[in-house]
């Protein structure tokens, strides 16, 4: 009997060395702050229980929640322009504090600047408003980025570019083909270790009627369009994680 007990004790200890206990990793606590215009707000996506859960922010949040505990602050404001976002960043102390503690910040801005350009362009066929507004937008975006980095130099920033919402043959398609790539070029210059640039232009090319509400004169993405944007964000974010060693 004693030999049997000793054998069981030895077996127990040997199994501990052979099969070490599995220690579950605690989920990371992340704060995600989404800044921007109606795309951040998810305008154009369908509603479920009065919530727009098919926008790119909810989809990205759901993806992050698989491995993390997430706190989300959505500052999506329909109609917000680049100058409006800059003013908000400079004046809102509550938002500044959110940015200081954010692990991830996404920014979608520029679409309403584009719409303002359309109005100016229709009044002046010389094309001057396009160049002038892009120049103003470039300088404004530089200040927006400086504001974000001054409050949080280490956070991961995701900059969302523009797509052309107008299909081939639309009277505004050519202007969209000029404005969106130039705007995306501005954002591309900010790409670095912790700043991601998400460019939806090529993915949406030829898909405006399928992925937006442009058939109803609404440039916003539908559920399919927002899902495509989410997949682009996910791809860039996962690439960053593979390139950045865990801390």
Q: What's the short version?
A:
With 247 residues, the protein is of the alpha/beta class. The protein contains eleven helices and seven strands.
Helices and strands in order:
Blueprint (H helix, E strand, L loop, with lengths): L1 H17 L9 E9 L1 H4 L14 H9 L3 E9 L5 H10 L1 H8 L3 E5 L2 H13 L4 H24 L4 E5 L12 H16 L6 E4 L2 H4 L3 H4 E2 L4 E4 L1 H21 L4
Parallel strand pairs: 1-2, 1-3, 3-4, 4-5
Antiparallel strand pairs: 6-7
Describe this structure in words.
It comes from Sutcliffiella rhizosphaerae. The chain is an alpha/beta fold and 247 residues long. The protein has a single domain, classed as Rossmann fold, CATH 3.40.50.1110. Helix content is 53%, strand content 15%. The protein contains eleven helices and seven strands. The protein has helices at 2-18, 38-41, 56-64, 82-91, 93-100, 111-123, 128-151, 173-188, 201-204, 208-211, 223-243; strands at residues 28-36, 68-76, 104-108, 156-160, 195-198, 212-213, 218-221. The strands form two sheets. A five-stranded parallel sheet has the order 2-1-3-4-5. A two-stranded antiparallel sheet has the order 6-7. Helix 3 (56-64) packs parallel to helix 11. The radius of gyration is 24 Å and the shape is globular. The chain starts with a helix and ends with a helix. Residues 5-24 have low confidence and may be disordered.
